[in-house]
Amino acid sequence: MPEWVMAIIKILIVLAFIGLNGMFLIWAERKVAGFIQARIGPARVGRPQGFFQLFADAIKMFSKEDVRPAAADKWVWWFAPVVFFTPVAMAFLVLPFGPNVIGLDMNIGLIYLAAVASFALLGVFMAGWGSNNKYSLLGAMRAGAQMISYEIPLILATIGVIMITGTLSTQGIVEYQVAHGWNIKTQFLAFVVFFIAMLAELNRTPFDLVIAESELTSGFFTEYSGIRWGMFMFAEYTNIFVMSALAVTLFFGGWASPFGLVGSVLIFLIKTYAIVFLIIWIRWSVPRVRIDQLMTLGWKFLLPLSLFNIVFTGLILLI
Amino acid sequence: MSEIEARRLKAEEVGHEKLILNLGPQHPSTHGVLRVITTLEGERITEAEPDIGFLHRNFEKIVEGWTWSQVIPLTDRNDYLANINNEHAYVLAVEKLAGIEVPERAEYIRVIMSELNRIASHLLTFGTFAMDMGAFTPFLYGFRERELLYDIFEKVTGARMMHNYVRLSGVRNDLPDGWDKEVLEFLDRLENDVIPDYYDLLIKNPIFEARSLGVGVLTKEDAIAYGAAGPILRGSGIDWDLRRDMPYSIYDRFDFEVITREEGDHYARFMVRMDEMIESAKIIRQAFEQMPEGPVMGKVPRVLKPEGDIYSAVEGPRGEIGVYLVGDGNFKPYRVKWRAPSFSNLSILPLMAKGQFVADIVLTIGTLDPIFGEVDR
Question: Contact A49/A43 with Cβ under 8 angstroms?
């Protein structure tokens, strides 16, 4: 089979996975939220447990009117969801699902991920500016401040792992853990920093200031409706998956399993969804922090902690 | 002029542009139809101007054309979370004006219902305050208990919110059999399970403390100057509760504490409400113990034509619900003036919002807890 056919097949698989994962997570979030809040959650559409709610939601999003505000900056507004969505899909290129199940095993995998992830901010900012709405603009401003200040501890936290494993390749990091056990044993501090920064990077409660329903109605995507709004939602939920998968790869042994190829992929997915569940759980349990508290936490607490972790890891390696 | 100074001057020339942000009237956390015109500098608020009147129903004028007893159902709609308290306030004023006697048992029923209504209202305030802070789950927990309480109300009055239950010279009907047990069960649950749950779920959370401790401080002097009432007044350390200091109905027969907190911040106001629920439960328990048998309605003259004027007030969940009545010897009131606690509480908003973050003005509205049925009337 020629290479380009393979590439197209891979892209289609990733897009199908993004679609299914997004719908599944939207349903799962509503269901988990229901249980946490002492109610049932979606239960009407399809059995068991209203599972077909996700298809109903998808149909609804596709068939809704796509309203553009008259004062919006047309092209910026138009492309914002695309710009937000694309880097998330691109991140799948280096996520190792199994021993050979990876888009492309790059030797700079982590740098690629960091570079791609920082692009998402552009989409958020385009949405906020292009909507020509003050709530959106405030949301986008917050997003700028928040994502930049949390990307730094996020990436610094991974440096400890890179130092131990001696590779930037995601596949290489997993292979190291297959041989030496999970990284969480030596990099617990890094994981804590990574997880908190990850929540902020994903705009999830307690760091969901960008969306901040009670203040900014819906933040940067207030003006979007129909499938454009859906694209933001899909990108967000896919991003949750990507970040959780990255956490699993870096700290929890990735696909390492004794059950062969299928077993590896399954183990990887189970671990990832466990972290996704943790994120959903946190979202429905805690209030939101304020913008100045967010900045304080990021710069005065997480950043020194991640730097300390690098020094600490270096000392361990030296000894 | 040095180069640095020149640059600084240039930067000042560019200056900051102020952003005018319109919060509401369609906004998820303005508790109804409040519009606040805020001027922002970055995330800081330099000025906030509340714009009210979207829910104006002409209450005070309309009732001038109605008979004295016809007004009662409409008072329900003023503070729609404290219906019995509103009815009680109005009925008490008319009874004082016309000199109507109320049977003993009816007074006890009124007190029980008022205090239950206070609990229901505070439960909702707990929930909405949590939601303003971005925690959605406590909101639904607050609603769950309030829902149980509304079932209890429904068994007595037949309605969940708009009761029309308190009547001149008494209450509409007696309590159903076994109702007191249900109420006491609910109160036990509230004290032993529900409120501790709320502490675990929200109040002990460090984020909650960081967001509410020391934020939105209202000093004693300001609280008095702006005519604050209820939990807002007591949250600023002023020991004033009409139930104890100007006892109406039969409140002087109960033993309860007036909750005050010195700090005057969001946390203090919030905790005053939490503790008041427990005090209300105390009052209800005592009322059930003391309650005598007997009729629930007294005698009212067929044609009611009181003369003179009177001001009478009760302590509602949001503070002093005052009613000023003028009767000119006619079968309908000459003037009904409604002193709504939310209205005076809301007037503090511009003062408190100045210098706050956008995120905090939402909490400030949440903790002042205005109900627009009675602000706009």
Answer: yes
Neighbours of B313 (CB within 10 A): 20
Residue of A38, A206, A217 lying closest to B28 (CB–CB): A217
Contact assignment for B357 to A36 by CB distance below 8 Å:
no
Q: Which of A36, A288, A293 sits opposite B133 (nearest CB)?
A: A288
Superfamily of domain B3-375: Cytochrome-c3 Hydrogenase, chain B (1.10.645.10)
Domain ranges of chain B: 3-375
Structure-derived torsion over alpha carbons of residues B64, B373, B338, B272, reported in degrees to the nearest 10: 160
How are strands ordered across the β-sheet holding B319-328?
B307-316, B319-328, B335-339
Residue B203 touches partner A, C-beta closer than 8 Å: no
Q: Which residues of B touch A281 (CB under 8 A)?
A: none
Residue A285 to residue B210, Cβ atoms within 8 A: no
Query: A201 and chain B: CB distance < 8 Å anywhere?
Result: no
Q: Do A215 and B205 touch (CB under 8 A)?
A: no
Chain B residue whose CA is closest to A32: B137
User: Tens digit of pLDDT per residue, chain B (377 long)?
Assistant: 566 676 666 656 655 677 888 887 877 777 778 888 888 887 788 888 888 888 888 888 888 888 888 888 888 888 888 889 999 999 989 888 888 888 888 889 999 999 999 999 999 888 888 888 888 888 888 888 888 889 999 998 888 888 888 888 888 888 888 888 889 999 998 888 888 888 888 888 888 888 888 888 888 888 888 888 888 888 888 888 888 888 888 888 888 888 888 888 889 999 999 999 998 998 998 988 888 888 888 888 888 888 888 998 898 898 888 899 898 888 888 888 988 888 888 888 888 888 888 888 888 888 888 888 888 88
Please give the Cα distance from B214 to B203 (Å, whole number).
15
CB contact under 8 A, B207 and A206: yes
For residues A260 and A255, give the distance between their C-alpha atoms in angstroms, rounded to a whole number: 10
| ipTM entry | 0.78
